[in-house]
Amino acid sequence: MDDGTRTFLTCENVKLELLPKPTFEKRRSEVEFYNEHFNLATIEPFSAALGEAALELGAKWGLAAGDSLNLASAIRQGADEFITTELPRKPMFRVKELKIISLHSR
């Protein structure tokens, strides 16, 4: 994440996936880490257009809602890569519209 050559893109859904539990459990260092990343990233807000793109992508590749939103947002923002902690056998790796990299395969 210290790579100054990268532009980080994300969406509101990622914030919703990552922040509530550590915030509730008062894990301040984890919340600070996530917020530091979000402050450096371009964040696509929830919108009807994002929802429609996610629905279409999810139906095309058999994705769960969260993965559909995250991947559709990455595609809409023109991402070159999508980096995830998901295992490479997950349905999201069927998506051909962008390169998906699992941190488990590094």
List keywords for this structure.
106 residues, globular
Q: Can you give a write-up of this model?
A:
With 106 residues, this protein is of the alpha/beta class. The protein has a domain at 9-79. 48% of the residues lie in helices and 13% in strands. It is built from five helices and four strands. Helix 4 (48-61) packs across helix 5. It is globular, with a radius of gyration of 14 Å.
Spatial separation of the terminal alpha carbons: 15 Å
Topology order in helix (H) and strand (E) letters: EHHHEHHEE
Tally of helical runs = 5
Specify the structural class.
alpha/beta
Strand-residue fraction? 5-15%
- As laid out across the biggest beta sheet, the strand order is 1-2
Give the oligomeric state: single chain
The average pLDDT value, as a whole number, equals: 95
The major sheet is characterized as:
2 strands, parallel
- Number of E-type strands: 4
Low-confidence runs of at least 5 consecutive residues: none
- Helix coverage percent: 40-55%
For the CA atoms, what is the radius of gyration?
14 Å
Inertia-based shape: globular
Quick synopsis:
By secondary structure, the chain is an alpha/beta fold. 48% of the residues lie in helices and 13% in strands.
List the helices and strands and how they pair.
Elements: E1 9-11, H1 12-18, H2 20-24, H3 28-40, E2 42-44, H4 48-61, H5 65-76, E3 81-84, E4 99-102
Parallel strand pairs: 1-2, 3-4
